[in-house]
Amino acid sequence: MDFFKNKIKKFQEKKLDEIMFKIQFHESTRKKLEKEMANSNIIDEKSQKKIKYHLEMEEIWKGNEKKLRQQMDETK
Description:
Blueprint: H1 2-40, H2 45-74
Helix pairs in contact: 1-2
């Protein structure tokens, strides 16, 4: 039984690392776009859509992180 628990734990940790990477990616990309928009003083609809997209993806991945952490807590 411990073998399967260890396998599950390793899988969950790997998934958590992937989720954290995606959160960081979308967050840094969104911040970069916001900074570029602020520096250019031009309100570009395309840039706003990209910022909104990355913000939405951030929220989705944060939700996935929360769910995975709950699962990890339940399997302890």
